[in-house]
Every structure is written in structure tokens, then in C-alpha cells.
Design a protein that fits this description.
single chain, alpha+beta, 4-stranded mixed β-sheet, about 25% helix
Length: about 200
């Protein structure tokens, strides 16, 4: 099977991000429409590290290549796509990073969060289960708040809690939490921001 026989679905979210638009739902809608034999190629201005983990849970392995200072190309192949994986191997150039393999345990089981994530005190939740991770996502441009939150959830054990503080109610995140089966509560703040308490399902 040659690379030309592989059905490639491409998505470029660089324009969306340049306009400060949230591309996560567009990406997930594209993924939902994929067949297992499809190869998904994503163009972004940065390496979409949290997304790699999310799609890994959905059965995709990935490779990432930096084409320029603001251009990363990440290729996703489903674990059931044997011919696509073989053909892809002939297309991969030296220097490509292999970011995830289905079934591998690259992340620790505990919910440690990113090293750069800043823990902040959030009030009014003292009577609830103590959160495992607390994220202050205020001031971050899309899709970073959603990506950070989902990445933290991925590393959590069932029943652990992630507490986030966002500039606004994260409507796209809430939709994804519903898909993942993660219970959550939203607390609107007087300044227009929102705090969300999420339990890993």
C-alpha cells in the first residue's frame, strides 16, 4: 500500500487562532467525522500537546513536525488503521517526533498538572472534596484554557477533582465534559469570570 492510497483529512486552525477563535470544537467535530482508515493532518501554530493525549484516549497515535516558527504539522492515525500506519511510516521524515502510541503509559497516573501551571486559591469550595489540581486560566488565549484543563483531567484518576478559574463560562469545555461523562459545577463570579469544579468520571 503506497502513501498515495491513504485517505488524508487535513485541518488548518492557524487562521482561527490568529483571530482568537476557539478551534477545539472544530477539531473534535472533524475527528468525529473520521473513518478509522482516514489519516488526520492538523496544522497549528504550536505543538498541540494536550490534544495528543485526548486523541490518544480515542485510539490515535501521532507524529509532529515543526515546519516553521509558527507552523506545526501533526499527523494522527487510528490504531485500527493498519495500512495507514504502514504507509505513514514511509512518509515520515527524519526529525519527526512520535508523540503518543495507543496503549502506552507516557503520562503518570497521578494528576500532577503541567509544571508551569500556577496553583491558586479558589474560595467557596472548602466544604467540597479538596481538588487535586487548581488552574487559573484567566488571561490565556484560546485554546489554551480548554487544552490545559483537558490535559489535567487526562492525568487524573477517577473521582479526582480539577478546579479551574476562567475569564468566562467555558461553553465548549462543558460540551466536551458532557461527552466524557465528567460531572461539573459552574459558579459565575461578580466580575464576569467563572469557576468550574470538574470531577474525573
Amino acid at each position: 500500500m503506497s502513501p498515495s492510497d491513504v485517505h488524508i483529512v487535513e485541518l488548518d486552525v492557524r487562521l482561527h487562532l490568529s483571530k482568537k477563535l476557539e478551534p477545539f470544537q472544530l477539531i473534535m467535530d472533524t475527528v468525529k467525522g473520521l473513518q478509522h482508515e482516514d489519516v488526520f493532518v492538523l496544522h497549528a501554530p504550536f505543538k498541540p500537546t494536550p490534544l495528543l493525549g485526548i486523541l490518544k484516549m480515542k485510539g490515535y497515535s501521532s507524529t509532529s513536525e515543526r515546519k516553521g516558527s509558527d507552523h506545526w504539522v501533526t499527523t494522527f492515525v487510528h490504531k485500527q488503521n493498519k495500512t495507514g500506519a504502514k504507509a505513514l511510516s514511509t512518509m515520515v521524515l527524519s526529525g519527526l517526533e512520535v508523540d503518543s502510541k495507543p496503549g502506552s503509559d507516557e503520562e503518570p497516573a497521578s494528576c500532577n498538572g503541567h509544571p508551569e501551571e500556577q496553583a491558586v486559591a479558589i474560595e467557596n469550595f472548602e466544604s467540597l472534596q479538596a481538588p487535586t489540581v487548581i488552574l487559573d486560566n484567566r488571561g490565556l488565549e484560546p485554546p489554551q484554557p480548554m487544552m490545559r484543563t483537558l490535559a489535567a483531567l487526562e492525568r487524573c484518576k477517577p473521582g479526582e477533582v480539577v478546579l479551574i478559574h476562567n475569564d468566562r463560562v467555558p461553553v465548549f469545555l462543558i460540551e466536551e465534559l458532557n461527552n466524557l461523562g465528567c460531572p461539573y459545577t459552574v459558579e459565575d463570579q461578580a466580575d464576569g469570570t467563572a469557576k468550574v469544579r470538574i470531577e474525573k468520571g
